[in-house]
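Side project, low priority. Logging it here so it doesn't get lost.
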Amino acid sequence: ADCLPDGWGDGWENVFFNVSAENQRRADERIPILLSLPFKHKGVMCAPFIGQVSLRKYLEAGQIEQVLCDGENYDGARPCRYEWVKLLHDECEEFDVKFVFCGTGRRFIKDGRLYSIEGSGLQSEQAHKSGLSVAGKPIFFDLRDGFGLPIDEKYRYKPKFRERCEKCGMRPSCNGCSDCGKCEKPDGKDFQNR
């Protein structure tokens, strides 16, 4: 808290602070610190998701607005298990907290079967198809202009999405497409599935 800027108070509306919690040990280390800090918007990112995590005791506090999870990628990736993701889904659903299953990771185990899923685009699509993400209660940002007046909804940023975004596991937490062109190679193939 000593590193926060002057005028921080109990946090700024435009700042969302997340901690990573790749397994229960890290969750139990980091989340109590998160809950003790003055941030208006708090979340947990279970990534790379390499061990079961229960967030029930932390969600009960009512401070966590969003939970995301994603399996591990790259060579030597450790597997992510369906039942770990389902546990987070169930806990977030119980406490009406937004939950986003971003991607399966390169190695995903479901019903005792190991799936090797190449490419982050396909991993994200498989996460979307699982139906495990939870909308949760809406997250409201009380944004104000330089005079302290509320910024009207019509002037706030609204994300744009492409057709390909419809199947993306990260869409519920995404800021949308910036039309940067990086998602396509010159041959038109999906950049994420390289």
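Brief comment: Residues 16-193 form one domain.
Revisit when time allows.
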